Amino acid sequence: MTLPFSGSEAVLPPALLLPLLIVLPALLAALLLLPGRWSLRLVPAAAVLLVGLVLAALFAAVAESGRVTAALGGWEAPLGITLRADGPALAFLLLTALVMAAILLYAAGEGRERREARILGTLLLFLWAGLNAVFLSHDLFNLYVALEIAGLSGVALVALAGGATALRAQMRYLLFATLGSLLYLLGVALLYAELGVLDLGLVAERVERSPPALVALALMTLGLLLKAAIWPLHFWLPPAHASAPPPVSAALSALVVKAALYLLVRLWFDVLPGLPTEAAWQLLGVLGAVAVIWGSLLALRQERLKLMIAYSTVAQLGYMLFLFPLARPGSPVAAEAWQGGLLQMLSHGLAKASMFLAAGAIVAALGSDRRAALAGGSRRVPLPLFALALVGLSILGLPPSGGFLAKWLLLRAALEVGQWWLALVMLLGGLLAAAYLLRFLLPAFRPVPVGEAAARIPSGAAGAAALGLALLSVALGLGAAPILALLAEAAP
Amino acid sequence: MTQPLLYSLCGLALVALALHAFLTRRHLVRRIIALNVMGGGVFLVFGGMASRGGAVDPVPQALVITGIVVAVATTALALALALRLFRETGRIDLDEPNDSGAPDEPNPGAEAR
Description:
The structure holds 2 protein chains of 2 kinds. Chain A is an all-alpha fold. Chain A is 73% helix and 2% strand. Chain A has helices at 14-32, 38-65, 87-108, 114-136, 140-158, 164-195, 200-206, 211-227, 237-243, 246-271, 278-300, 305-321, 323-327, 334-366, 377-380, 382-396, 402-416, 420-441, 460-478, 481-488; strands at residues 68-71, 82-85. A two-stranded antiparallel ribbon of chain A has the order 1-2. The longest helix of chain A is centred in the C-terminal third of the chain and has 33 residues, at 334-366. Chain B is mostly helical. Chain B has a single domain (3-94), classed as Helix Hairpins (Orthogonal Bundle), CATH 1.10.287.3510. Chain B is built from 3 helices and no strands. In chain B, α1 packs antiparallel against α2 and α2 packs antiparallel against α3 (58-89). Chain B is elongated, with a radius of gyration of 19 Å. The A-B interface holds A 79, 141, 144-145, 148, 152, 155-156, 159, 162-172, 174-175, 178-179, 182, 185-186, 189-190, 192-193, 196, 198, 235, 238-239, 242-243, 298, 301-302, 304, 306-307, 310-311 and B 8, 15, 22, 28, 31-32, 35, 38-39, 41-42, 45-46, 49, 52, 57, 59-60, 63, 66-67, 70, 73-74, 77-78, 81-82, 84-85, 88-89, 94, 96, 101, 105-109, 111-112.
């Protein structure tokens, strides 16, 4: 396999790189709480730089030896906790780093009051540590802790927004995220009672089809579907994501829901692939199909840009579930659907972060995200609007974009195994996405309303962050080969 | 009935009771307590299993301690949010007031039904 970073010298032992990816952001988050003006700019920049370096070294190590495993504290499983990085984990670590870099850039340009900026930065770095832990942990209970670190930082981040409506949305988010975690944890307890191990590899070896194991899988799945906001458990997501400050909306929609979904994929495909019946694999596909249509229709009814983007997340999450019926063990198109489904998660992460950052820049400039207020936007905020249109390609599934490639792979897989109804849903979802995106983009090309300034309002770092992610989402379609190779590594 | 099984079944009963309360109660403090009871039930299931097969297995106990730490953090955050909501709106539930509220206040929850 050829990877961008192969060939560099390993400075640290590869096994040390994995805990560093979790410890570094957490340590820097704590550092950011120290008083003093110096830390506000320096610490986020250092985090991006250091995590980037560690990630590059990890890429090189994985390119050499396939996968990197670390037994924490030298204790091997089943007693100790194992961290493991393989192809898909690397891809998601990279996505998280790219989105976090853009979000921290956006936050630096926001001009927040210093105390608030400090809290925002600290929580974002804790969130980063939690997400990296989710992608690296190879232990059922450690995954629960990692999900909670990410989830609680997420809720605290949303709480930066004030106002009664936002508070209600945050409260609902916290309550249902915690319920999801507890359901997952109960599943872990039952599985541990049955098997006596928590390490994912050992669980996969020892598990047999038995009623307790099936109940455990059902509980974990239910909890994770709730945390990933999959229809019909999506109700908490749109108000929470839409009412958060822009960098937080971007992190939640692009990364936090993906973390729960990533864990669900790993559980079903890597750990317990023998447990679900054929009907169960298919059921997740059906939930995804309803999510695509339902989320798109609601996105079409919104009058506020951020709510439209949030409902679009509900719809786009649906596509990712097509992975389950199409790539299930024994499916002839498993490899293709596996790459398509995971690529959809990655490309949606880039696209949705860019959309929320662009929306934030537009609100900052125009003072509102109502559809009516966008009139004349093409002259006043050209850069964020351009970013919005560009990632629209990915959301719609038009070439050249990561979203196109992902949906193309899924579509081809669906047609090859005769699941034509999934293909139909994908096409319909694309048409609806075109409608809900154009409903907001077209008014921006109307002339500026009489009596308002037509001058261009510079969007600075915010525009640059949104545009950078938008370009990456297009680049993901053009240069997907190395990423697809990474994802194929753990294909079922 | 063996003792570990009894503990585990009690734990499951607590989870079921708490789930019922969580879904039917509106008062936020009651719902937060329900989540805590549910967590307690899950911990009891873990604890009950620790003595499975004669010798005591220390792993579930270590897990429960970690779980309690997470539950404390979650509860603290939830109570702080509930307090803020009460100060802002004078209510301690998630119901939307029908008439009050600023005219241009974003109302993202309305479409979710």
